[in-house]
Specification:
It is a single chain. The chain is α/β, with parallel strands linked by helices. Helix content is about 35%, strand content about 25%. It contains 13 helices and 20 strands. It has helices at about 15-30, 45-55, 65-75, 75-90, 125-130, 160-170, 200-210, 220-225, 285-295, 320-335, 335-340, 365-375, 400-410; strands at about 5-10, 35-40, 95-100, 105-110, 120, 135-140, 140-145, 150, 175-180, 200, 230-235, 245-250, 265, 270-280, 300-305, 310-320, 340-345, 350-355, 380-385, 390-395. Helix 1 links the parallel strand 1 (about 5-10) and strand 2. It is globular. The structure holds adenosine-5'-diphosphate, aspartic acid (ASP) and magnesium ion. Magnesium ion (MG) binds near residues 9, 156, 159 and 214.
């Protein structure tokens, strides 16, 4: 008998019919003799609705963090509903099941309301319950912060709840049920030529998630990697008695066929800001980015370029479209302190990333990327790299086209399965 954690995302619990379908997958594991904890998201669209309501209820309290405490109390409710509903459905099927909220586990987090990180999970009660034959249906996305208030883990956080619980109870695996039947070589909504990847390494999945493949929250992959928890991505739309193989996220050593490039990931939520003519001296970048961090504005690609005027430099960075307005306001308030001349911004940008472990050992991946974009007449505004990733910032109108061109260029298209991507 193994301990298993299963997670169902928003579209997989979107209504009672979908909740019944999820229950069928849960039954299968329980009937096979496993101890099962199930983590659920809110019904699809519900968290967005709650976020909008909390924004409408403004104006924000003077201390930004105080506002996020109540924000969490509001947005965490979506998961409470689905946990109760799935427990009820399972009970009506004749199973012993109960719902659990984050604080009841307890799943403890730090004080960063709205995007809290898990600090500790006391698995005693949960492990006893599931080993005693009761199905535990746990609210994803939420926990209890050190201030004894409800906290949430950031958008997509139910993935993280599931993997963290799996690690805590030493689960044999964590199965993430969603609306696609695995992790693909690019978002399958963008091209029919995208291919399901049978096995992907933690490292590659981590990069994919962090550059915008929303199929898994980044933090969930970090935890899976740290605790060596096997994770599978599966479709809740498959027949419960004959589910597809999905994608297994595992150690690099467990993957026989390693491609140079594993996936292409677009991110359409980027916006760029250019801070013109900042004095070129120590401390100026710190002023810009410290203030933005204090406002909890996420920053991504940062570039420094020469300014036309002697002794000045231009700083460009990207942030999310959502944070753009606040970033501009914050910088304008600090204009004198930072000492820039003016700001430019652009919402019409997207980031496209190429990810693959093979980049560590194969040269030329960047060359193929840049040449492919050049051949298509696409201008690169910004570049950033890691050991296994290259990202470019381009005009968002060209992003889908770029993804398809790169997908083909690296031999990832469906019909090219057998070909060597390096050829
Ligand atoms: P859930 O509500 O189940 O958590 P999400 O919407 O958060 O589901 O994540 C699933 C979505 O991720 C898919 O519908 C798909 O459009 C998107 N996605 C983006 N990149 C990829 C990828 N490389 N492989 C699979 N899905 C991807
Ligand atoms: N319901 C939350 C969200 O929509 C958490 C999740 O679904 O993972 O972001
Ligand atoms: Mg998700």
């Amino acid at each position: 008998m193994a301990r298993i954690v299963m997670k169902f995302g928003g579209t997989s619990v979107a209504d009672i019919e979908r909740i019944r379908a999820a229950a069928a997958f849960v039954r299968r594991e329980v009937d096979a003799g496993n101890s099962v904890a199930v983590v659920v998201s809110a019904m699809s669209g519900e968290t967005n609705r709650l976020v909008e309501l909390s924004e409408e209820a403004g104006p924000p309290a003077p201390a930004l963090d105080a506002r996020f405490v109540e924000f969490d109390a509001i947005v965490a409710t979506g998961e409470q509903v689905t946990a109760g509903l799935l427990a009820l459905v399972l009970q009506n099927l004749g199973y012993r099941a109960r719902s659990w909220q984050g604080w009841q586990i307890p799943l403890k987090t730090d004080l960063q309301h709205g995007r809290a990180r898990i600090t500790d999970i006391d698995d005693t009660n949960l492990a006893d319950a599931i080993d005693g034959g009761e199905i535990a249906v746990v609210t994803g996305f939420q926990g209890i912060a050190d201030d004894d208030r409800i906290s949430t883990l950031g958008r997509g956080g139910s993935d993280t709840s599931a993997v963290a619980l799996a690690a805590a109870v030493g689960a044999a695996r964590c199965d993430i049920y969603t609306d696609v039947d695995g992790v693909y070589t690019t978002d399958p909504r963008l091209t029919k030529l995208a291919r399901r990847i049978a096995k992907v390494s933690y490292e590659e999945m981590l990069e994919m998630a962090s550059v915008g493949a929303k199929v898994l929250q980044t933090r969930s992959v970090e935890i899976a990697m740290a605790y060596n928890t096997p994770v599978r991505v599966l479709s809740s739309f498959d027949p419960p008695d004959a589910p597809g193989p999905g994608t297994t996220i595992c150690n690099e050593d467990d993957i026989v066929e390693q491609k140079t490039v594993a996936a292409i990931t677009p991110d359409f939520n980027e916006a760029s800001v250019t801070v013109l003519a900042v004095p070129d001296e120590p401390g100026r970048a710190a002023r810009i980015f410290t203030r933005l961090a204090e406002e909890r504005i996420n920053i991504d690609m940062i570039v420094r370029s020469a300014s036309r005027e002697q002794g000045f430099a231009t700083r460009s960075f990207t942030t999310t479209e959502k944070d753009l307005e606040r970033a501009i306001e914050t910088l304008n308030e600090e204009k004198k302190v930072i000492g820039f001349s003016s700001l430019q911004s652009d919402r019409n940008v997207a980031k496209v990333s190429v990810i693959g472990l093979g980049m560590k050992s194969h040269a030329g991946v960047a060359g193929i990327m840049f040449q492919t974009l050049a051949d298509k007449g696409i201008n690169i505004q910004n570049i950033s790299t890691s050991e296994i990733k290259i990202s470019v910032l381009i005009n968002s109108d060209a992003a889908e086209y770029a993804v398809r061109a790169l997908h083909d260029a690296y031999g990832l298209d469906r019909q090219a399965v057998a070909s060597d991507p390096k050829a």
